[in-house]
Amino acid sequence: MNFKKNFSFSLLGAGALLAAGAASAQEVVVKIGHVGPTSGAIAHLGKDNELGARMAVDELNAKGVLIGGKKVRLELLSEDDAGDPKQGTAAAQKLVDAKVNGVVGHLNSGTTIPASKIYADAGVPQISPSATNPKYTRNGYKTAFRVVADDVHLGGTLGRYAAKDLHGKSIAVIDDRTAYGQGVADEFEKGVKSAGGKIAGREFTNDKATDFSAILTTLKAKKPDVIFFGGMDAVAGPILRQMKQLGMTAKLIGGDGICTAELPKLAAGTMADNQVYCAEAGGVDASQKQAMEDFRARFKATTKLEVQVYAPYSYDAVGVMVAAMVKAGSADPAKYLPVLAKTEGYKGVTGNISFDAKGDIKNGALTLYTYKSGNREALSVVR
């Protein structure tokens, strides 16, 4: 009797396993790669992007996704490029070898641009949530897209803002010689000059530097009232500290690389109210504000962290990519890529997303910010 009972239970167990196996066999796995610097000085920004992408994948899996009539399970394959171009291309090749269906990343222009050729050669669609150097979408690769405005818009807007709104009479420029930092600084300089402003001096550093006393002392002699820094918050924070040590009261202005929640901590409490102004390549109008606030609340509840900068754009990059797969009825890159390129009016948490012929977002927004009491405050959204 015990034998029969055990045997019948075994059959039931085997039947359950076979049923589970059949269900599993019907489920299609779609691999989405993510690459960003999850180690090094700007790991907090890379992790922010990764968590945004992961949140999108988890939410879509929870809702259920059907592509071509088949149930799909999305899988995020994340790689660390440490903000280094060589490591970035190695990560890109690893994802291509893993047969990913698409890639969200990279974070930095300096890693995104060289990696884009690898994805293009393999025919793998790539959407960067944060790379702003214009060259990324001007190489003619049909696989390259971004969901934020580029440096021509960002740098130029900040240059005009420094000259007109901040009334900069003596404007200095520092850049970190990366593809992003130098690129946005060049566009800033053009914006200043187009607004009738003058550049008093330009210096450069690198993205690993910690001592800026020499370049700041050189600029101090020129008595700048505004200093632009093209680079990331990990360098901008120490620059602010050393400006204070030298008694410099100039306003610091920068792009999205410095426009983070982490900047006040990196400046170690040396930031004065309204001393720092920055722009984020993205932004939401009043009609989209609630959707962004809801995202930030979900992000914090899920990750126990505040959004740094581009998590919402990583989230939307996954969403728009999967939407193209669903519309095409296939996750095969060759089949959904043409649909992705024709994306019009996708409703994301960051606003409506449409791509132009180059793969750039149409009518991309910028949000201008300042800092008060250690908190970032939005000033306006510019398109």
Automatic annotation (TrEMBL):
Domain of life: Bacteria
UniProt keyword annotation of Cell cycle present: no
Keyword Transport: yes
Keywords (A to Z) from UniProt: Amino-acid transport, Signal, Transport
Signal peptide: 1-25
Residue ranges constituting the Leucine-binding protein domain according to the UniProt record: 30-373
Listed Pfam families: Peripla_BP_6
CDD domains recorded: PBP1_ABC_LIVBP-like
Transmembrane segments: none
Family the UniProt entry places it in: Belongs to the leucine-binding protein family.
Name of the protein in question: Branched-chain amino acid ABC transporter substrate-binding protein
